[in-house]
Protein 1
Amino acid sequence: MLLNAADHGVVRVLGTAIAASADTSTRQRRGLQQKRGSKTKMLDPKFLLLNTLMATTWWLWTRSGMKKIQKRWDDQRTEIESKFGKRCKRVECADGFSMSVQAGTANYSTPRSALGPYTAVEVGFPSRADYLLEPYFDGDSNMEDPTMGVYAWVPVQVVTNVLAKHGGMVSGEVPEGVIPLTAASHENT
């Protein structure tokens, strides 16, 4: 197993602790004593050494194990994005309006593939109703709350117009093909 600089520092510190625990006078000064009833007994140096080695082994194993898990998650995310398309972060506009804009094989988009550029995208769950999106509402037309639905195959020009109407994007992402209009005060950040 290869160790990085931080790992070497921890092993060096733990090695120093092991050497110090083997010295009886050091153990007495540090109070490494165990009380049993009325008798006071010194902790066995072999016991301290074994516990320190076990703790070091556990720490190194979990650290390398977490790196493997993180790599596996990254690989799975890349595989899912290549099959279904990248999931974009929710768009927040300058005036407080927000909406989800997605495209891919599992969304109402054209083309219905993981690769853009897209000519139509799916808009979901806007923070408030917008008349530009109404013709594309996918659901019950009698629904009282248009913020609780999805808008299917919305042309990218309409999405760009919605962004412009609400002052531009402050944060979030849009799929390839949609012009990411940013708010005037946030262009240089």
Protein 2
Amino acid sequence: MTNDRKFQVRRIVGTVSWGACFLFLGSLGFARAAQSQVRQPPASQAGSARPSAKASALIDITGYWVAIVNEDWVYRMMTPAKGDRSFVPLNAAGQQVADAWDPAKDQAEGNECKAYGAGNIMRIPERLHITWVDDNTLQIETDAGMQKRLFHFDGSKWQGGDPELQGYSVASFEKQPQLRAGGAVHGPAAGTGGSLHVVTTHMRPGYLQKNGIPYSGDAVLTEFYHLIDLHGTGFLILTSMVNDPTYLREPYVLSSQFKREPDGSKWDPSPCRPLWPLSLRALTQNRRPGGGPAE
């Protein structure tokens, strides 16, 4: 399949009616990510008079969320073919690692969770549970893979040691351009509203996709979380950027969306799986010529 054809399949499968709204918000995050590159969020200043991150949060993203897979469907809901690195800017070293991917070897070595590290965990079809574990630490739990990420608002306290699957994340709340009546975009406004800026380092090497597309221990993940309300429903828009001098020739930028859920009744913890049950080949082979699913 040609690259043009892949692009058509990938985008047509993921299109939804409100994608333009998310694309606009994602572009704001992309612009800010490009400006910030991998700068760390400012550490909180010492002093008892300074309010905690929980007390001074500009947006409230706590609660339950479900991933909306409205783009890159075949790359997220299924395991891409070995060597399929479409749209991931791998350098020569990264391509070599991707082409050598062996899922059986990963499973035999206990590395089923390599695609569930910080570099890809927010792209997994999943539900999130976000809570404050203390006044300056926000926790994101995933039911898929049963992972936990901790966002530290009191500056980096990394003491060294072995890298971890979810790395070490430093976070801050920041003001963002506000959308006003008539669609005009203005500078930061007083009052509530803003975004969550997170920078993650000290990650254990992992995969950017389930088919062994690698990121190294030198990778840095920068994220911007935006909260919007659309017709009374909350949506969490995430713009993420992976910088990896070892395996990427340029930053890898993605936008992901999550929809707020009223409670945890659909929460379904499951262990890491090295492969999704479906592959694109299996799906196409098991469909009737008319397009309906096979019985």
Protein 3
Amino acid sequence: MLIPPILKLITLLIKNDFSIIPLVDNLWYPFCVIRGMDYKTIKYPDGQISVEITDFDGPIKKRINSYEDLIGIVSAGEVLRHQGKSCDLFIPCLLGQRSDRRFGQDQSFDLKVIAGLINSGGFGNVSILDPHSDVALALIDRSTKVSSYQYVAQAYAEEGSPTLVSPDAGAYKKVFEYGQKLGAPVVAAVKHRDKDGKIDLSFIGDVAGQKCLIVDDLADGGYTFVLLAEALRRQGAIRVALYVTHA
């Protein structure tokens, strides 16, 4: 049986006495909402994907787990253009957002390919929840970022005003901004990886005797978060919780 990544993550966290806050609907699975329409997808034996618009009165939610899902959404956009209608797109979790650059000269720039497909759908405004980097906004036409602040604020309140923890340098700017809005202290984790790939963690700030909330946008296997939680415990944190927007 295939286990969704977030369930694997939760299992890891439970084994390590590490609590997680599943606050955002799309924490469980990435999905996509096209406002103002319903459609059905037809898949033919040869793999061809065809879309038929069945109702233009109400939103549709669809997880984007694959290029097949993406093609279905883009095809729906093509139908609407043919009908002379327009539609905005809201993406709670963008497929391939980690691949925001070309990792080698012989390797495809995957986010650019995905953005090109989304652009071909001819959508009006494209809203993306908590994108991993601003590269997505540069590549996708008429796109805007939707902040995760309201969800982090909910986690912060439910955890009893903890110290916010930035898990790496890439997350620090956003976590610091959220900390200022919430009036919360922020601790930054500094990650060092040796030549053998072993991770060593240190912190800028004190967590002794404090509750901590790690804030990040993406979780895959969860191993680094487990290491981070263990390191925070060793530094004296009395509770460690995790917020992620996409898993």
Protein 4
Amino acid sequence: MKHSLSGKSSDGPAIAGPLAYLVLLATSWAFLLAGAGLGMSSMSTFRFPPPTPAAVRVDAWTPGYALTILVMWWVMMIAMMLPALAGRKSGLFPAAPNPVRPVAPRPISMRFCLGYSLAWLVFSLFATMLHHGLEQNGLVHGRMMWSLSPHLSIGLLVCIGLYQLSAVKRRAARTCHRIDATRPSLRAGLADGLACTASSGPLMLLLFVGGAMNMVWIVALTVVNLLEKRLPNPRPLSFAVGIGCLSGAAWIFSGTHGAETL
């Protein structure tokens, strides 16, 4: 361990950020696995589209319930997005200089992570309002939190699929791909986080198709987001996800159309 002239450890601040990052990430996933404060479990399924039980609606979205849903979305976004920050330009902990690789990875900055997380709070506010509207209109199940409407599912899959194939997605992905989580700046984290919501935010709306608390979809989208940020060229992956969304829409449409003709 290195010491400064004053006798204090110089590794303390460098280690504090990565430790806080790991604690935040672990706490977020633990909160989700425990039910995200909703007292619910068994909301996961591999079926696509998910089963359509009888509609359940929360009649009164009290301020307390709305806050719970907001916290659920925000913690979920933190859990899904933070893994990608320990990426190509940073290491979790400071590394010793390497003569073969003179520039060692710098430790991740907690101030950057905080700003990045605040950007996803903005997205979570939007998702909460959308969640309320869809549920109150009987389009999303009040308990399972997945789509009850094939038209809603098809619409979301088509829109998200086309976005994944668009030039707008490519530009947003390039911006998000260049983020540097080692910068000790709250403002930089907020700015880069808002840029990344443009890249990954639409994809997160797939949770309304598969279930906002469906751990199968949460893990799958976390992996996709991580790969989009870490791969040197994420374009083929984004293209494949877009084609997958459009194929899923076609699958639901064919099933719905077939049922109507019987």
